[in-house]
Amino acid sequence: MDNQKSMEVFSKAPVPQAVFKNALPAMAAMLMVLVYNLADTFFIGQTHDALQVAAVSLATPVFLMFMAVGTAFGIGGTSVKSRALGEGKSEYARKVCSFCMWSCIVVGVVMAALFLIFMNPILSLIGASSETWNLAKTYLSIVVCSGPFVLISNFPLPLPPYCISIHSRN
Known about the structure:
Oligomer: single chain
Order of helices and strands: HHHHHHHH
Strand content: under 5%
Number of strands: 0
Largest sheet: none
Number of helices: 8
Helix content: over 70%
Distance between the termini: 20 Å
Structural class: mainly alpha
Radius of gyration: 19 Å
């Protein structure tokens, strides 16, 4: 039923209206990322400890790497899926959707593991000083462990039921 509504927006709505209806969720997701970063900085800033604020700032590039990879899967997968649905290839769209979702999970876990393994070189690369090292390492560990969820958050929601299955329906 929801799939019918989605297809109706693409096939019958004027292009500006269809773009607007599909752009709103993307803008909301970007706004939530901004609010997330502002909230971190605000609450940590309440400690009046510049080193803790610096540690959060040092972890931001790693967070943005997770966001970039998630966006690649989200935008790329959505583009391929939309074209497939437009061509009436719903089975192929289901496979693309499933591939992108499960790839976000696998790639997120692999990225998190790599970031945890190479934490010290990464901290050196992003410029952590001896004063911010332990704080940045602690915060970065938390960010890295949430990385797979960051990737999945870039996947277009709501997930159609055909995205979740890893076995083809016959």
